[in-house]
């Protein structure tokens, strides 16, 4: 029987809190200010909310590919750190930075030069396409900056220094909100730019965020301070070794993100109100999902450090604690969302009664599946990836999205023509399947491996 008592697990909780709390705070600030941003944009109407939601599907897809890239790279950084092989960390970072910059450059090119064409894939509402295109063209200029911020932020977390990306994100996001207020509505002497003002605020905030991270890394963290010469020191064997583990993670996040984008395509074709409802529900749920994100990233770092130090039994024991904690947190947060959904919708958003009803129902449906979502986050981001079991992780997640979630989305949205919250319920069955299929692999302990020598 696993014990979760604090006194019996002081080392576990101290390490967990040191890593997870800065990540949770960063994500909480991000989610809160994202909520505020959308409340501001929401004052311009449901079409503006839908436009920003669809335009950000491009950013969402890119960030998930970057997340996969840096998650895969961070497996090695965490294990090298645990094994005290500090000289090899920069070699791994160079691989991540190079690939991430290439990916973000491609996304920038497509988004900046073909913004109308991209939005036309998602919606047949001319107003939504026009508004979203204006937003996307400006915000795409922040994509390469985001890739670099991710690269250094993930690396900092992998060596247990999670406060730097938290501080940088907090400052930039607060700035983003202030600039949104000024540029969307025309305060502090600025002209009211509407949705284009929101995009400009995001671009400025990304510049500030990257500047803060780079200044601190190159002033205080020499182990992560990659220099030009480091790009020429990486051996081909290192690239092959890293990508053997990292590439399944990249594919995992890419195809998962494409699945989420496909869901957005279905929701948008159900109607603009449906898309706005899902967008609002996702924003509010992200406030609560920060606990899952913090726990998942902490588990990845802590398990990776233990496995890198060849403490296999300790890693297995820690993993069990993470899974129990994730299930308990998921149940608690799911209940909270079900109870608080009407209050949050009526307090923060100016919606019609019908859109409010749809949004509340959508939030409650998402809440019912929260325990499964929390649990699957730990096994995929923490358990499997920490030990390099990335191929199984990819097969599990991608198959559940594309063989269960996507077909059910099209069935519910286009064939049965269900309301959007019923479609969300059908799609969410993929989370249940992940838990059912992933748990035997966890129990087998095949994931608990040291991948650095």
From TrEMBL:
Location within or outside the cell: Cell membrane
Organism superkingdom: Bacteria
Keywords: Cell membrane, Membrane, Transmembrane, Transmembrane helix, Transport
Annotated TM spans: 12-29, 49-71, 92-115, 135-154, 166-186, 198-218, 245-266, 286-310, 322-345, 365-384, 391-414
Membrane topology: Multi-pass membrane protein
Major localisation: membrane
PANTHER family: MULTIDRUG AND TOXIN EFFLUX PROTEIN MATE FAMILY, NA+ DRIVEN MULTIDRUG EFFLUX PUMP
Protein name per the record: MATE family efflux transporter
Organism: Fusibacter ferrireducens
